[in-house]
Design goal:
Elements lengths: L4 E2 L1 E8 L7 H5 L10 E4 L2 E8 L2 E9 L8 E7 L5 H14 L7 H5 L5 H9 L11 H11 L4 H15 L1 E5 L2 E5 L3 H5 L3 H5 L6 H13 L5 H5 L3 H9 L6 H10 L12 H12 L9 H12 L3 H17 L4 H7 L2
Parallel strand pairs: 1-7
Antiparallel strand pairs: 2-6, 3-4, 4-5, 5-6, 7-8
Helix pairs in contact: 5-9, 11-12, 14-15
The chain binds a DNA duplex through helix 5, helix 6, helix 9, helix 12 and helix 13.
Length: about 325
DNA sequence: CATCAGGGCCCTG
DNA sequence: CAGGGCCCTGAT
């Protein structure tokens, strides 16, 4: 590993997210596995970003409150950034972090659902976030497949350690994602040596699709959910489980809950029906239930319940969860 | 030591 | 459309 690239603070930008805004529940997701591309502590998140071929360090600071939100974003880079570039970074961040999301109608539609209403109130202003690009998100999705969380972490570490770039800014040393063009030059054996197994082929093929322009995040954003689904499923190594995460996290479809994997099935069944892990509800029943109860906001609603249980787990509140997530 | 499932997906028949 | 195989790891 080369020594880290040193970044300098280039500019500071004030962001006023749409109120209500819960900084910590948005800027930290306890269900995500730890990744060396970011760090969080209450009120602050550091994040690396590869944007338009340039490596950035981002530091978000909470300088407001839930009802009067204000975020101070400082952007670090190797050299000066022009106005147009700076604006594009902010626009992209506002999109990825859903800073302008209006939660009013979502909240209002569950006035008569006391259970969910309580969770929404507890995490008032929390929004779903995708901290990375579509390409990066798909890389993460690939290392999640058919592996326990611990192994996913080690695969991600070795990929970032080999192909990523170490950045130092604000006293932190974090890894940034690789450029797809760089990964495209790696061969499959080289990747397999990093112990990512058969996923090496998926990493190669998905990378190739991005480098060759067969898939483009910006144009996909303007397309329908059905078109997005079709394009994503077409990628080698990307199947239904990965696609439904992308539709929700990356493309902001709040109803994207049509597929439930076995480990999620167990947790949902326990959370909503109190069943034991060995005896979960059938996936079709769960999907029907979520659709009937939460409608067009079903995934967003489930996100609130899901994040709540992972926050509570962090305080030792949910002992049964550890057995189901196998860290 | 062997066997197995895991935060899926592809391919085959 | 069901089911075997896939890289590797830790659990049993």
């Amino acid at each position: 590993m080369k020594r880290p690239l040193h970044l300098e603070e280039q500019y500071i930008h004030g962001i006023r997210p749409k109120a209500p805004f819960n900084f910590d529940a948005t800027m930290h997701k306890p269900d995500h596995f730890p990744s060396p591309d970011n760090e969080w502590e209450p009120g602050v998140r550091w994040q690396t970003m590869l944007w338009k071929d340039r490596l950035l360090g981002l530091k978000f600071m909470n300088v407001g409150s839930v009802d009067d939100p204000s975020v101070r974003l400082s952007v670090w880079a190797q050299d000066e950034l022009d106005k147009q570039y700076s604006t594009s970074v902010i626009d992209e961040i506002v999109y990825r972090y859903n800073f302008n999301l209006d939660l009013a109608s979502f909240t209002a539609s569950f006035q008569d659902d006391p259970e969910l209403q309580a969770v929404i109130a507890k995490w008032r202003g929390m929004r779903p976030v995708n901290y990375s690009s579509l390409y990066e998100y798909l890389m993460i999705a690939i290392v999640l497949q058919n592996a326990t969380a611990r192994r996913s972490v080690s695969m991600m570490m070795s990929l970032l350690g080999t192909y990523g770039t170490s950045l130092s800014f604000d006293g932190k040393s974090l890894l940034a994602f690789w450029k797809p063009r760089r990964m495209n030059r790696a061969n499959e054996e080289e990747l397999r040596a990093l112990r990512i197994g058969y996923r090496a082929k998926s990493v190669k093929r998905v990378t190739e699709a991005f480098v060759e322009g067969a898939i483009d995040e910006d144009s996909l954003r303007t397309q329908s959910k059905e078109e997005q689904t079709k394009t994503l499923l077409n990628l080698y190594g990307i199947g239904p489980a990965s696609v439904w995460y992308v539709l929700f996290d990356v493309f902001h479809h709040w109803d994207a809950l049509d597929y439930i994997s076995p480990w999620e099935q167990k947790i949902y069944s326990k959370l909503f029906f109190g069943t034991e892990p060995g005896n979960p509800l059938p996936v079709e029943k769960l999907v029907e239930f979520f659709d009937a109860r939460f409608g067009k906001y079903k995934m967003l609603a489930v996100h609130y319940v899901w994040e709540d249980v992972f926050w509570r787990r962090a305080t030792g509140d949910v002992p049964w969860l550890d057995d189901l997530i196998r860290l």
